[in-house]
Amino acid sequence: MIYTCTLNPAIDYFLQVDHFKAGVLNHVKTDRKMPGGKGINVSRVLKHLGQTSRCLGFIGGFTGAFIKEKLAEEGIEADFVLVNGDTRINVKLKSDSETEINGVAPEITDEQLNALFAKLDRLTADDFLVLSGSVPATLPVTVYKDMIHHVRKSGARVIADTSGEAFRETVEARPFLVKPNHHELGEYFGVGIESFEDVKKYGLVLVKKGIDHVIVSMGGKGAIYIDRDHVLYAPPAKGILKNSVGAGDSMIGGFLSEFVTSGDFQKSFQKGAASGSATAFSVDLCTKEEVEKLFPQIKIDTI
Ligand SMILES: Nc1ncnc2c1ncn2[C@@H]1O[C@H](COP(=O)(O)OP(=O)(O)OP(=O)(O)O)[C@@H](O)[C@H]1O
Ligand SMILES: O=P(O)(O)OC[C@@]1(O)O[C@H](CO)[C@@H](O)[C@@H]1O
What we know:
CATH architecture of the largest domain: 3-Layer(aba) Sandwich
GO molecular function, one term: 1-phosphofructokinase activity
Number of strands: 15
CATH class of the largest domain: Alpha Beta
Keywords: ATP-binding, Kinase, Lactose metabolism, Nucleotide-binding, Transferase
EC number: 2.7.1.144
Pfam family, one: PfkB
Number of helices: 10
Bound molecules: adenosine-5'-triphosphate, 1-O-phosphono-beta-D-fructofuranose
Pathway: Carbohydrate metabolism; D-tagatose 6-phosphate degradation; D-glyceraldehyde 3-phosphate and glycerone phosphate from D-tagatose 6-phosphate: step 1/2
């Protein structure tokens, strides 16, 4: 089973405004509310690509009820810990440029955190656990590291996608795979990542720290995969950018959808890259048909 964990889910509220101006009244042209948060996006992409997963994390209030309802409609299993406050709303404003305003997580108590850890006790060596997104302010920043240590004995493989201090802590616990984007990689090392050579150099440092697979995504410039023996480049597919929100989550979903069946990391990377691009070219997260269409375009190269 693939478990995704979203500590800080959200309703993503997408707004389209013609020529948005700060400081004045703007009228919205179209809007859309979607269940969001990085792990939830991974689960939705997995579902689109024909794989089952179960969503873990914290959810609460009317916003949480909306997310649970939408996931149920899509046939995605959810096993969230309920919290008292409202799950946040994240604003995704599309105008001449894209602006994101991410909300604040509701409070999470020690009992609720323990309840989440208890759910991890059922993981086995056949399972994957995807830890994605920001850590709510009421949780320790070490929470992902603690979760990885908690499941280590089970043999479950952990994939982590977070940023800032939480990413720093997560790396210490040596997950199976991490997927920083190039900004997050640069932030971790306190450097600007300017070239593919930089990505390769710093990605290899993460591998040497004991992380088996490192994927560094670079938005419209594609992605680089690094393990002990390989450094591979996946170019971006060609298309018109419609929405980059969730492209990174789609990359993880696409990678895993292949990896759980074939265990072929190169094909999984190719599928991940096709999924990232397919989401960038769609209004919602990628569909199977879109991914299959782009897959042959992604020619993986050794660099
Ligand atoms: N404009 C684009 N054109 C083609 N492919 C893209 C584009 N943007 C993203 N992709 C694909 O999706 C992958 C992931 O995108 P990105 O690096 O933006 O992830 P991210 O920063 O983690 O995004 P998010 O946090 O919104 O999920 C890229 O490596 C690339 O393969
Ligand atoms: O605030 P976080 O947890 O870092 O990111 C949350 C978020 O921006 O990431 C997803 C896209 O990757 C969106 O669905 C969601 O709104």
